[in-house]
Write a structure and sequence with these properties.
The protein contains seven helices and three strands, in the order αααααβββαα. The chain is mainly α. The structure holds manganese (II) ion (MN).
Length: 192
């Protein structure tokens, strides 16, 4: 059974950019719900219970489950791992990933250009979804957005940075000002 991962910081640690109430509901309610639903599907498949959540989502199209359950695993398993990464890459203090920063500068020519491209991808995601920075199957950095809880792992990519643009991630504080949320979020991304 998968469990809700603990945050390495308090719910109010990302203030004023992400408010404590949003963090608490997002983590303890939304993230927990994905985990509860993911576990409920896995109960039916003992063969999957020895795998990590990443292995399951990575092999989403290969695992032997009903099509209805594959959809549930895509949504709830994806929701579980996507949020786990999201909490991990944020924090009140910078903890620079030097290798990633070097690769970003190489691939996108500058950090500013990367931030502009990623921001555009996040803004451009129509409806619920996430913006992603991933290493593709050739180890090349790529930016894109995916709908819902779809994971880059399913297409063989390694996610490094993600931004949740579901309304539940920002609505209490920002309401319809999604662009302000996205621009402010860079302040709490600890990796770069
Ligand atoms: Mn979310």
């Amino acid at each position: 059974m998968f469990e809700l991962p603990k945050l390495n910081y308090e719910y109010n640690a990302l203030e004023p950019f992400i408010d404590a109430t949003t963090m608490e509901i997002h983590h303890s309610k939304h993230h927990q719900a994905y985990i509860t639903n993911f576990n409920a599907v896995l109960e039916k498949y003992p063969a999957l219970q020895n795998l990590s959540s990443e292995e399951i989502v990575k092999n989403l199209n290969g695992i032997e489950v009903t099509e209805e359950d594959r959809k549930k695993i895509k949504n709830h398993g994806g929701g579980f791992i996507n949020h786990s990464l999201f909490w991990e890459i944020m924090g009140p203090e910078k903890q620079i990933n030097e290798q990633l920063l070097a690769d970003i500068n190489t691939e996108f020519t500058s950090l500013e250009k990367f931030k502009a491209d990623f921001t555009q991808s996040a803004i451009g995601q129509f409806g619920s979804g996430w913006a992603w920075l991933v290493y593709d199957e050739n180890g090349k950095l790529k930016i894109y957005s995916l709908p819902n809880q779809d994971s880059p792992l399913t297409i063989g990519h390694k996610p490094m940075i993600c931004l949740d643009v579901w309304e539940h991630a920002y609505y209490l504080k920002y309401q319809n000002r999604r662009v302000d949320y996205i621009n402010n979020w860079w302040n709490v991304l600890k990796l770069i």
